[in-house]
Amino acid sequence: MIFLVLTDGFLQIWRLITNFFFLGPFSFPFAFRLIIIAKYGVSLERGPFDQRTADFVWMLFFGALSLLGMAAVPVLWSPFMGVSLVFMIVYIWGREFPNARISIYGLVSLKGFYLPWAMLALDLIFGNPLKPDILGIVAGHIYYFLTVLHPLAGGKYVFKTPRFVYLLFLFGIMFA
């Protein structure tokens, strides 16, 4: 990751952000990922994150930071992390809606809890790389553990959305 940012001796800081916007070449998996973002991302935004836009953006920001942190490990490095961020959204959706019935390609019906694992199996069947999927699942689990599981087990809730993020959206809504 450091190599990407310091290419040709110049600090190219935008590469830390733009790598999350690439979902692969135009293909069936690319279209499928766009549909996943539209369906499950919006479902999260209208469900558990309803009226909590700042918390939703903080979740995505935390996911991006944790994925960049994982990419600092040479064996986990990947030039593009968009697929991993999509898998993080799917994992969190599956944890927030564990009993929702979903259908994959109209062939298989399963509970929402199993969606990330079914998608991982599909990527294995289609020959797509599994590393981005697994990194997204790990990032999603870290977020879910810190925000839901740890506090439910009696631990202190330490992962609050910073006040400046709320203020950004407060002023953004007021001046839009």
TrEMBL record:
Cellular localisation: Endoplasmic reticulum membrane
GO biological process terms, semicolon-separated: response to stress
Residue stretches spanning the membrane: 12-36, 57-90, 102-122, 134-151
Classification via InterPro entries: DER1, Rhomboid-like_sf
Membrane topology term: Multi-pass membrane protein
GO cellular component terms, semicolon-separated: endoplasmic reticulum membrane
Keyword Transmembrane helix listed: yes
Keywords, in A-Z order: Endoplasmic reticulum, Membrane, Transmembrane, Transmembrane helix
Short name of one Pfam family: DER1
Family statement: Belongs to the derlin family.
PANTHER family referenced in this protein's UniProt entry, alphabetically: DER1-LIKE PROTEIN, DERLIN
Role noted for this protein: May be involved in the degradation of misfolded endoplasmic reticulum (ER) luminal proteins.
Record's protein name: Derlin
Source organism (scientific name): Linum tenue
